[in-house]
């Protein structure tokens, strides 16, 4: 089991490095898109920067500083430390590891898409104040685009919890497939 915990810690650090690089790139990209240095654009930039700093702090704290705790809590929950590893236990920990990684990426996608929608809403409000009509703001405010971040948030929460129903189902189906495959191999010999 210690090998799986070590693998989880390595995955957390690798994912943290990836997310930090992507976040830095997104911050630089949002700086490049500032056309004019107005109060609204600086406010939008401050919002994006604050959101990015909070996200970076969470990444560093949870994925680098507390990686041992989260690896044991997320990957090896409900498993005794001295319990012997068998196929179903190894599969359970592996599927949980993949689920948590996908959940972290889904959380990143949620943060980025949510900040983009807020930026678009602020830009629509800015164009509304410049006399281009209220239609632009209301179109942006009640857009179906808000459904995507919500779905990513729900998916991220489920995956970060270890996707318990999916993992149980997948482990059961994988073991059934392996047993059927080994029975076929025995019959062919």
Molecular structure report:
With 189 residues, the chain is mostly helical. It has 2 domains: 3-74; 87-188. The chain is 83% helix and 0% strand. It has 7 helices and no strands. Helix 2 (39-65) runs antiparallel to helix 4. The model has no long low-confidence stretch (mean pLDDT 78).
How is the topology of this model organized?
Blueprint lengths: L1 H31 L6 H27 L1 H9 L11 H43 L5 H7 L5 H14 L3 H25 L1
Helix pairs in contact: 1-2, 1-3, 1-4, 2-4, 4-5, 4-6, 4-7
* Proportion of residues in helical segments: over 70%
Instruction: Give, in order, the helices and strands.
Output: HHHHHHH
Low-confidence segments, ≥5 residues, pLDDT <50?
Answer: none
Strand content: under 5%
- Computed CA radius of gyration, to the nearest angstrom: 22 Å
Query: Assembly state here?
Result: single chain
* Mean pLDDT value: 78
Report the strand count: 0
Number of domains: 2
Main sheet attributes: strand count, strand direction, barrel closure: none
Helix count, per DSSP? 7
Shape designation: elongated
Give the termini separation.
Answer: 34 Å
> Pairing-aware structural class of the strands and helices?
mainly alpha
In short:
The chain has 7 helices and no strands.
Keywords:
189 residues, mainly alpha
């Amino acid at each position: 089991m210690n090998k799986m915990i070590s693998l989880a810690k390595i995955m957390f650090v690798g994912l943290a490095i990836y997310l930090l690089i992507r976040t830095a790139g997104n911050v630089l990209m949002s700086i490049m898109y500032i056309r004019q240095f107005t109060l609204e654009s600086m406010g939008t930039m401050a919002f994006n920067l604050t959101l990015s700093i909070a996200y970076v702090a969470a990444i560093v704290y949870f994925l680098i500083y507390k990686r041992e705790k989260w690896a044991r809590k997320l990957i090896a929950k409900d498993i005794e430390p001295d319990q012997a590893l068998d196929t179903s236990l190894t599969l359970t920990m592996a599927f949980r590891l993949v689920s948590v990684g996908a959940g972290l990426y889904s959380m990143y996608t949620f943060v980025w898409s949510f900040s983009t929608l807020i930026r678009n809403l602020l830009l629509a409000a800015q164009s509304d104040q410049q006399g281009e009509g209220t239609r632009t703001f209301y179109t942006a405010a009640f857009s179906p685009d808000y459904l995507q971040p919500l779905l990513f948030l729900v998916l991220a929460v489920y995956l970060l919890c270890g996707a318990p129903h999916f993992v149980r189902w997948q482990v059961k189906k994988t073991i059934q497939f392996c047993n059927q495959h080994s029975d076929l191999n025995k019959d062919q010999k």
